[in-house]
Each structure stands twice: as structure tokens, then as C-alpha cells.
Specification:
This protein is an alpha+beta fold and 84 residues long. Helices cover 21% and strands 37% of the residues. The protein has one domain (4-82): 2-Layer Sandwich (Alpha-Beta Plaits), CATH 3.30.70.20.
Amino acid sequence: MKKKYKVTYDRESCIGAASCTIFSNKFKMAKDGKADFIGSKEEDEEFFVLEIDEHEFKEILESARSCPVNVIHIYDLETNKKII
């Protein structure tokens, strides 16, 4: 069984640094200068969520670590603990 993670993205607080797009194709820059989180669902206004497995974990972890305003977070769904 593959390990599952929940990724959250606060688009409203994004400053458009674009570092997240370097590490993962799940993030693409939009015309408004902020990143879109491809495949995610809008859970609240400008707050997006996506469930991923271990296959996508490393690249999204690097995107989250590269974000200068810390708007990408990853949670372990098994323990519900925040990884970043």
C-alpha cells in the first residue's frame, strides 16, 4: 500500500516567486502572477487541497521547501502530522 499525503496550498498568500514550478509540474504560473496548483480542488476561497502518494511526494516537498512565503504544506494522512 502506497503512503498518502495531503498537500494544501494557500494561493491568496502566494507572492509569485515561481520557485515551486521548478521542482514540480503540479505548479504552473498563471496570468495573475500567482501559481496554480494543477489537479487540486478548491476547499475554501483561494485555498487548494490535493491528495498525493509517495511517488509525487519528493517533488512537491521540494516545491514546498522552496516557497519563500511558506504557503505549501504537506501532511502525512496516516498520522495527520504536518511534514512541512
